[in-house]
Inverse folding.
């Protein structure tokens, strides 16, 4: 089990469907142009809050991402579970809000 409570064996299916689509308690079931901020907040709460805070003392995500350009931030998602081995792999369908190639 990863730190975000996702079982390792469940990750491939969650990555196919997207964590928002599989989380029973998620209000937003997908990221759309009109709900990006709200869905992003839900994604953070589902995937990151167990180890990171927003403006708090525990691995403050604001401090860690301050000054990052979009490409740098996206590369963090690509590295999750690999170079960033302390973080579980990203459990979304896409790092850029578009369907993954396997979903097209």
């Amino acid at each position: 089990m990863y730190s975000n409570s996702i079982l390792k064996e469940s990750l491939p299916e969650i990555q196919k469907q997207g964590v928002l689509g599989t989380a029973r308690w998620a209000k937003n079931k997908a990221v759309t142009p009109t709900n990006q901020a709200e869905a992003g907040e839900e994604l953070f709460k589902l995937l990151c809050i167990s180890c990171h805070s927003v403006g708090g003392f525990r691995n403050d995500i604001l401090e860690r991402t301050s000054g990052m350009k979009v490409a740098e931030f996206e590369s963090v998602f690509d590295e999750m579970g690999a170079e960033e081995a302390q973080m579980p792999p990203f459990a979304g369908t896409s790092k850029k809000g578009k369907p993954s190639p396997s979903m097209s």
About this structure: The chain has five helices and no strands. Residues 36-47 form the longest helix (12 residues). Helices lie at 11-17, 19-22, 36-47, 61-65, 70-79.
